[in-house]
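pasting for ref. prot 1 ->
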Amino acid sequence: MKIKQLHIQNYKSLVDFKLENLPAFAAVVGPNASGKSNIFEALEFTNYVCRFPFEATSFFGGLKNIYSYQATPGKKMSFYYKFDNDININFSLGITPQRNLDGFEDVYSIGQEPILDLGKEENPFLFLDIRDKNKRDNFLEVVRQKHLTYNNEFEIFIDNFSRLLVGKTFLNRSFQLQSRLHTNASNLSQILAQILDSEKKDDFFEWLRILIPEFRDIEIRKSNIDGSSEFFLYEMTSTRPFSRHLISDGTFNILSLMAAVFQNENPQFLCIEEPEYGLHPQAIELLVNFLREKSEEKGHHILLNTHSQTLVRCLEPHEIILVNKVNGATIAKQLTADNAVNIKTDEAWLSNAFGGGVL
């Protein structure tokens, strides 16, 4: 899965933000308050608009909290995604806020354009039609009849999107699916139970033993009272298990990141914030290799954001998107293989040899 073009306007600091030819595995790199999280939140917001068109803004604190301060009055928030297919598959969404004398109302209109450019179709397939199974099936049938190549990118983005920032409870929004890891990993026990009850268990355990050298086993205990689950971790040198409250933040982070990748066999769109949290430098390197490998193997689109020197050192130049904020607006510089230098990637970044993503 690959995004050919991304264009976001007037969402927080993303006044006129553009990315092109986004690799399947990449990292957004930049200083604090440069807008890295806003990029991921804008992707998440688009997903929510599709699922809850006229309630979506309420999950993000209301329109007044996401509409850019830099926007010209009356301008809409717009989100344009073009996927890398043989056909012109893209979707465009425009949200126009309505104002009153006191400022913003949380009221808006949604404008849409046809998802697939097949010429003049009597019943074009629009952004919000993805929620309608019959319209979705009809759209796929048109694609098959015309013998076009379509890799389900739009459906992957809507159906299998996850944003993860472990431990940040304020990011845990309402109506998150129970079958998918929540943004703050609060339902980790439930997702681990699903993984351990599947054919993915052996592969999952093999990677855990690489990233957590003392790891031996995981046990899921289910409450007879309310049906809730709790996981316990066993180490090589101990016969007694460790509950969630006894393991380190780094170990919990590793379990969460691994669970996010293994929660679905189908291709996913994963936005992972600060994956380096609580991890040893060697574990960070192993984790980057794991995420890169699973992206290639399973067709996942995995985006990271970071300001970790150790993580940047593990990246290839073409996997790096540098961001800075200029006059209140987030801007991006995408690196390519041509940006390779004769020093380590992190040194080139922090010395500003790449020309961006620094204080």
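and prot 2 ->
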Amino acid sequence: MSTTVFARPKLQLFGVATGYVVRKIGLSDLTDALRLGWEDFKAIPTHAVVLCLVYPVLGLFIFRAVLGHSLLPLLFPLAAGFTLIGPFAGLGLYELSRRRERGEDPGAWDAMHVLRAPSFGAILGLGLLLFVLFGVWIATADVIYIATFGYEAAASIPDFATRVLTTPEGWTLIVVGCGVGFLFAVVALCISVVSFPLMLDRHATAIDAIRTSLQAVRMNPVPMAAWGLIVAGLLAVGSLPFFVGLCVALPVLGHASWHLYRKVVEPDPNPPREEPRSPIGHRYAADFPASLFPWSRER
């Protein structure tokens, strides 16, 4: 493995110490993170959770776009924009990988332990920032479409595809839209590549988490650029056909992101002691509906 440790005890970014040591990594570390993410995916049935949470949302957007074509021009920006909020959406997957790393045998409901994260308030704040970035991207994509084709809506899906794929205006839309989308994706990658796993794992403010992510990108420009391309490529492949492949791509990327964080940020030399999870034991009908929320019985 090509990982090497950055020697200074504290990072300095814009003259401010972050207190988290960032390592230099290589492309082989990305491969290893994906391998570990795949192992987590096989061991933890998170695909069912992803199907339950992501598919209804995507289905609603698609259903609305097919029946009333007002959202049709934004369908691709909506799907592509998931990469902007993906780091926040993957919180539960990070938690499952963290627990499996500790030798536990986590279940899907253990993902809810993110609510007890040391920096949960900071996580919500940075998550809100990513959602704002997502909203700005959608508004920008809409402006680009209107500037290219005007306010006239496409009559049908084939008509929309013909406009975009066979006309000079459509080619301009593709080039400009993808170029602007790339800039949004770079911003999201730089501020969040290790931010959420760090805040889940340590007592870190949102500012320190963003600074650490920026430092990770600055120290590892080629691996981080490759990671961004890997994420975009797997999401693109997973979106075809009809987003079916996302039930594999999303959890694998989520788990792999945790392992990437472990490779990039030096572990806490004095981690807080966590009590081992007590066994759930038998569940009785009288416990319903509390039995649906096993973490509520923990002391």
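The mean pLDDT is 80.
The chain is about 65% helix and 5% strand.
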